[in-house]
Amino acid sequence: MLKGKRALVTGASRGIGRAVAISLAQAGADVAVNDIKFEDSCDELTKIIEGYGNRVGVYTADIANRQQVSKMIDEIAVDFGGIDILINNAGISPKHGGLKKPIYEMEPDEWERVIQVNLTGAFYCTRYVAPIMIKGGWGRIVNISSMAARVYSPIPGAHYCASKAGIRGLTWVCAGELAKFNILVNAVAPGRIYSQMMAEIGDEYNREILKTVPIGKFGEVEDVSSLIKFLVSEENTYIVGATIDINGGRAML
Fold it and tell me: pTM for the complete prediction?
């Protein structure tokens, strides 16, 4: 499905990013994985990707840093000979005792860091990858938004919700500007997905949230990665500028 394609997945050391990197490799893509740090998970992830017979490159960079992003993209383009797929997945959602701080207690530094990573980081990556895709005449970009961008949640916090709503707007604009180059840009908006970020909330709150999910269960990272695998494939020729919900029916819009 993706044989010969070259993908960059940001925030790939765990959770959805890790699952997406593996899923794209399973489909035949060579994968560049990025995170601000990898620790012990790096070796395991690279072995899994290499096990499918694909090239893999590990690139440590803070996507909120423009210079680091530019350098990383240049290195990947040289190492892989181009970039066909970009998954803007990296994101943070600071918690304090499992909960967010209300707007009247939130530190401005925390607000700025979340916006820089979740939204500005996606802009930087798209900004520097787009010319490479334009030159190649083909591209697929998927941005990770959130259900929190569509409906109020008492948990993620103003900075996270605002950043993920911004991702929706960024997706629309980029989709409109890049479609003429055969670069299709879309977003996915996960609800509650089993991950480390979800675990940070705590069992008590998650049990209450589960009561509001019509399907009666939380999602798995593979629910997200399988959809993304389709969106970045050549089978997708007409989905452009969409934000697709993956939330078990918790928010039906």
Answer: 0.93
